[in-house]
Amino acid sequence: MDRQEINRKQKQFIFPAVATYFRDPLPLERGEMQYIWDVEGKRYLDFFGGIVTVGVGHANPRVTGPMKAQIDKLQHTSTLYPNETAVALAEKIAQITPGRLEKSFFTSSGSEANETAIDTARQHTGNLEILALRHAYSGRSSMTRALTGISSWRKVSYQIGIVHAMNPYCYRCPLGKTYPSCDVACAQDIEAVIQSSTSGSIAGMIAEPIQGVGGFITPPKEYFKLAFNIVKQYGGDFIADEVQTGWGRTGKTWFGIEHWEVEPDILTAAKSLANGHPIGLTVATPEVADAYKGPTIATFGGNPVTCVAAKAVIDLIEEDDLRTNCAVVGAYLRERLLELQQKYPIIGDVRGMGLMQALELVKDPKTKEPAPEATAALLEAARENGLLIGKGGMYNNVLRLSPPMNIAKSDVDEAFRLLDKTFATVTANLHHTA
Ligand code: PMP
């Protein structure tokens, strides 16, 4: 099928609510490491990786090789039957996750992983209420939509027992303060919300160490320690949603939350864990996991092909020291983005950690008025120029960069050249139409 036919059938046979990027959606056909090709054979440098998903490159043979062998051996068991691939993966996860996280429950998506985490915290603590953060994205199931703190992703949301606190968004501080003189006052909002909007005892708090869909909002270093202590004071479990930040992407550590020395009671992951193959992970400390009331089952949970892929991904990250690569190449990417900011005043903020970096775009760096139209135009122009990047943020004015974790500095140089070209054309057009 050609591009027009795929897009026509997409319109006719797929739910229209399913979001697609670009005015003219982009049907993709084939990928190889940091590159992806559309159905017309045009090549793109992929600096979004699905949605922060293809952590070790498209069709990486060190992942697809073991998967192919497993497909011919055994493809499916369900969680009813233990299998070596699932327990080997769970053992590895227990070794590399922070603190006493030890017991895993495998499902098929980040939404399911977070659903499982919330159920687990509620059963473990005997409490109902969950605290989430504004600008969070937690998934597309009923409960995870309600945990989400961005209205556009919360359509038809009926859950009770979920409250939202301010997020640590320093560029647009919800309290109008400036770090560090603010004393991280936003963390105190967690306590204020618990005291005002819950029964006074909570089941837990769920938070992304760096908010992904929210626009790579990166907290000040004290924030999560303070948040964790408040959660504990009110009887809750702390859940780190590492769906975007996990497996080394933020540099140096395996998980985002480790940068701030917080040991979560529950951690969730998905996306890049199996390099794009469907997986959801909920891992908890033994006493928290043991509190989950069974029996329960996940038909696709612990699927042998997926588990082999995930194990191969973790082994590869370890063998190639990709955590260090994310720190080193991520710092270089950051440098080049700051260079771009010097050149284009539309870039109000550069933020993120490791190979998870974002640009927040504003009409005026002083007023910080969001620039969603320019952001959309930049996304389109980057595609034209052969670079795929992501978009996000409450105001649709953030460009997100999350390339595979095994890229080199030369890939950053290529992305920089394409971004520079993109910004030059789009900002020149903006001035013309202004
Ligand atoms: N948590 C976070 C932080 C996410 O970014 C996402 C997906 N964007 C999810 C959960 C939900 O994952 P999935 O789409 O696999 O259900």
From TrEMBL:
Quaternary state and interactors: Homotetramer.
Keywords: Aminotransferase, Pyridoxal phosphate, Transferase
One Gene Ontology MF term: pyridoxal phosphate binding
CDD domains on file: OAT_like
Superkingdom per UniProt: Bacteria
Enzyme class: transferase
Organism whose genome encodes this protein: Edaphobacter acidisoli
Protein name: alanine--glyoxylate transaminase
UniProt key word Transferase: yes
Coiled coil: none
EC number per UniProt: 2.6.1.44
InterPro entries linked: Aminotrans_3 (IPR005814), PyrdxlP-dep_Trfase (IPR015424), PyrdxlP-dep_Trfase_major (IPR015421), PyrdxlP-dep_Trfase_small (IPR015422)
Pfam families: Aminotran_3
Co-factor requirement: pyridoxal 5'-phosphate
Similarity remark: Belongs to the class-III pyridoxal-phosphate-dependent aminotransferase family.
PANTHER family per UniProt: ALANINE--GLYOXYLATE AMINOTRANSFERASE 2, MITOCHONDRIAL, PTHR45688
